[in-house]
Design a protein that fits this description.
With about 375 residues, the protein is of the alpha/beta class. The protein is about 40% helix and about 15% strand.
């Protein structure tokens, strides 16, 4: 016989669960100063500090844990995903962590940087032949042919209707980090929505613990979530892809729990880029465009609180880091080609931090 001996199933599962548990370190909660609003505290829950740089890391770790515990994953099981973004990167990371082969079926539009990051974690990439929206079905077929296990992070994000959501610990970490702050129970939590998992987990915690904190979802252009929430139409679809990776969807995903959300704030894509850049230059936090979307919404809510004469805290979830976007959202040429001009929105943010004045940029004549 050649090769390493295969451990019995129980031993493999115990080892895999131990490695997954060891990965579960809390992420930082960072203060963000707004000089003109001393009565308000703004904090950033920095999920970009995860090893793979996004909040999808937390979701995929939980998905791997559940699959190992229920026996869907065992030693040698091929793992397959249909995704072209941060979720597939996190999937490759955790597959390597527990010693399983990993393949991501990517849409043809997936950036080369995403493929490189998946391969960095020993994952394999296949380019889907069908339209981008169909890569999940291609991944499902591949898993069936190879005897593998399909990781569907959108299905996992839905969770049980009345359950705590698929991201246990996120709300607890935020509230634990605020102990000792002037406002340990914030007025608002702000997050983006891709699968809907983050908002659902936060909202369920707030409701089940009867906290007065309100939950806002920041939504980019083309996304179905704002019109779905505003209209009450649970299956609303726009059919248009989001230009802000990781959040916004052309359809309302099962994990989006409108009943747990107090407000959805639509955010222009150029404002998301402006807020991302402003966060880096002002606070030294190199976060991605989805974080910019959440920051813009948080500033909007801070301005509302100020106009009401209220005091309190706000926490935004920074769901992504800046590194994957060096050749896209951080590249002036790419922005110009997409018709995105963040300059007016950056000026608004700078004025807001300095004076507290919040006024939307006037459209060009």
């Amino acid at each position: 016989m050649t090769g390493d001996p295969v451990p019995p199933p129980g031993a493999w599962a115990a080892r895999a669960l131990g490695r997954l548990a060891a990965d579960a370190a809390p992420t930082p909660l960072r203060p963000l100063r707004l000089p003109a609003l001393p009565e308000l505290e703004l904090h950033v829950k920095d999920e970009s500090a995860h090893p793979t740089g996004s909040i999808k890391h937390r979701l995929l770790r939980e998905q791997f844990r559940a699959a190992v515990e229920d026996g869907a994953l065992a030693g040698g099981t091929p793992v397959v995903m249909g995704s072209g973004g941060a979720a597939a990167v996190a999937g490759a990371y955790f597959a390597r962590l527990v010693g399983l082969p990993f393949t991501a079926v990517l849409p043809r539009t997936a950036p080369a940087a995403v493929r490189a990051r998946i391969e960095r974690y020993d994952g394999r990439c296949r380019i889907g032949e069908l339209p981008p929206a169909a890569v999940l079905e291609e991944a499902r077929a591949l898993a069936e042919r190879t005897g593998g296990h399909l990781l569907d992070h959108f299905a996992a994000a839905a969770g049980p209707p009345d359950g705590p959501g698929p991201l246990p610990g996120l709300a607890e970490e935020i509230l634990a980090g605020l102990r000792g702050a002037r406002h340990p129970v914030p007025e608002w939590l702000v997050a983006g929505a891709g699968t809907g998992a983050t908002a659902a987990s936060l909202g369920h915690h707030l409701r089940s613990h009867r906290l007065p904190t309100r939950l806002a979802v920041a939504d980019p252009e083309n996304s179905a979530y704002f019109p779905a929430w505003a209209s009450g139409c649970a299956d609303y679809a726009t059919g248009m892809p989001s230009r802000i990776p990781g959040i916004g969807r052309p359809r309302t995903e099962p994990g989006f729990r409108a009943d747990l959300i107090d407000l959805v704030v639509p955010v222009p894509d150029a404002a998301s880029v402006a807020a991302m850049r402003w966060l880096h230059t002002t606070a030294g936090l190199a976060c991605g465009p989805a974080t910019g979307t959440a920051l813009w919404a948080a500033c909007h809510l801070a301005a509302r609180l100020r106009s009401e004469g209220a005091r309190g805290g706000l926490v935004l979830v920074a769901g992504d880091g800046a590194e994957p976007y060096r050749t896209t959202h951080l590249d002036p040429g790419w922005l110009a080609a997409k018709g995105l001009d963040p300059a007016p929105y950056e000026a608004l943010l700078e004025r807001f931090a300095r004076t507290g004045e919040w006024a939307w940029p006037r459209p060009a004549d």
